Amino acid sequence: MTPIKTLTCTAAMALIASPALADLSPDEVWSDWQSLIESYGASVSIGSEETSSGNLTVTGVEITSDMPEAGTSIGVAIGEIVFTDNGDGSVGVSMSDAIPMIIGVSDDEGAEGQVTMTLRQPDASLTVSGSRDDLRYLFNYPVLAITDLAMSGPEIPADLPLVFNMSLTNMAGTLDFAAGDPRTYNNTSSISALTLDMSFADPDSGNGSGEISMSMLDLNQITRGTITPIGPSGTITEMIGSGFEQASSGTYGPLTYNVRFEGPDGSFEMAAAAEGGSIETDFGPNGIDYGGLTENLTITVGGSQLPLPPVTARMAESSGRFQMPLVPSEETQNFALQLGLIDLEVDDVVWSLFDPTGALPRDPATLVIDLEGSGKLTQDISDPAAMQNGPPGELEAVSVNALRLKVAGAELTGDGAFEFDNTMGIPMPVGVANLMLTGGNGLLDKLVMMGLLPQDQAMGARMMLGLFARPGEGEDSLVSTIEMKEDGSVLANGQRIR
């Protein structure tokens, strides 16, 4: 079972509830839970079911999922679940406050280990309304936490000091399941805070110890998707082929992240903070599309392993996007790659290492890359056997929508578009790239003056620029048009260079 399937199954099991438009019975809710869990390749076992005054109590509930291809099994002992007829057409659901979970793992040689933890959900409120085929879940978790993490195995010391605590505070929202085959769902949720605290040590081997902590506030998410039966060994292509898809968008507020490590070679520390950001994902027939943005990010790095005092970097915006197809097809499919690092600043202590006199402009640096393209994916990249058959597809076209690098008083910008000829066995580009460099000669002069660049190497760089570029309209400005032709020739500003 892939991580996406596991997470989706867990979410479907955990989120439940709200007010009603039609009468709903406890038996119908319990039946729907079992069908949902089993559709993800898991199995449900119970000790007993008892009905009293229209309410259903199920005891000894255990959910297991075996993933032999990954050498992993998951067991969740829910214990008791009570489905209560609220008398208004809705059903209330209550479970044990503490739910133990066991993850068993084994390697190719048969060595086995376990990861155990406890899911805690005190005072959780879950209400289900609607009809058997059209459900709404209203949920409210004052606290949803994972605690008591422990690991055991042949290579793990029995007394390994390990602490792991993760909690969600005030998680509330709705989850709607629509009628139909396959079933679709929509989830809206908010979380006041997400916190993570983890520490570990290896006293026997002397490899060191470490701590990790994280905090995120004001999380909001909207998710929609389609649920389809999936076997435990299905590939990503098979998942999507069965109708599975999921898309979500979310935002978060202030974020902090801290890491500390003590080892034989010294210490390392990192602290990060951001004002907030957003994340968007889309997984389905068109492949995967993942992107995010972080605003006003600050990172501080220090420790005895670094030959510097603590160094701080700041960035106004950090963003990225990654899109690629996942399902093989004879049809052309799109891909994209975007990266943005806007107004990056570092402490003067870093500049002073190579520029103690302040010869270089210390304006914030910026890097922007925006690429889009198309091609054909001919093999299932999630199937290791298929990937042994050579390249998984063909590249057809790439567009450089934007290219910008600004640093130390120089700036390179550009765009372009290329198509690829695959008849030669190796993709051969045909197209045009437009580039502009400002401040480049000034930067070379400063680097020579500082002793960071030998004069002969600077001269070679200028000769290379003269071969590929021509003077632009402004001062210290160079422009270049690079053309790649069908016959394999390359032209720079109309002059053939290959």
Question: Can you tell me about this structure?
Answer:
Helices cover 12% and strands 57% of the residues. With 498 residues, the chain is mainly beta.
Question: What descriptive keywords fit this protein?
Answer:
498 residues; mainly beta; 3 domains; 27-stranded antiparallel β-sheet; 6 helices; 27 strands; 57% strand; disordered N terminus
- Proportion of residues in helical segments: 10-25%
Rounded Rg: 29 Å
Overall pLDDT confidence: 87
How much of the polypeptide forms β-strand, as a percent range? Answer: over 45%
Total helical segments: 6
Flag low-confidence runs.
1-21
Oligomer: single chain
Q: Give the domain tally.
A: 3
Outline the fold blueprint.
Layout: H1 3-14, H2 26-38, E1 43-45, E2 48-52, E3 55-67, E4 72-85, E5 91-95, E6 98-106, E7 112-120, E8 125-131, E9 134-152, E10 162-177, E11 183-202, E12 208-227, H3 236-241, E13 245-252, E14 255-263, E15 266-274, E16 276-284, E17 287-302, E18 311-324, E19 333-346, H4 348-354, E20 365-377, E21 393-407, E22 410-421, E23 428-438, H5 440-449, H6 455-468, E24 470-471, E25 477-484, E26 490-492, E27 495-496
Antiparallel strand pairs: 1-3, 2-3, 3-4, 4-5, 4-6, 5-8, 6-7, 7-9, 8-9, 9-10, 10-11, 11-12, 12-13, 12-14, 13-16, 14-15, 15-17, 16-17, 17-18, 18-19, 19-20, 20-21, 21-22, 22-23, 23-25, 24-25, 25-26, 26-27
Give a quick summary of the entry.
12% of the residues lie in helices and 57% in strands. It has helices spanning 3-14, 26-38, 236-241, 348-354, 440-449, 455-468, and strands at residues 43-45, 48-52, 55-67, 72-85, 91-95, 98-106, 112-120, 125-131, 134-152, 162-177, 183-202, 208-227, 245-252, 255-263, 266-274, 276-284, 287-302, 311-324, 333-346, 365-377, 393-407, 410-421, 428-438, 470-471, 477-484, 490-492, 495-496.
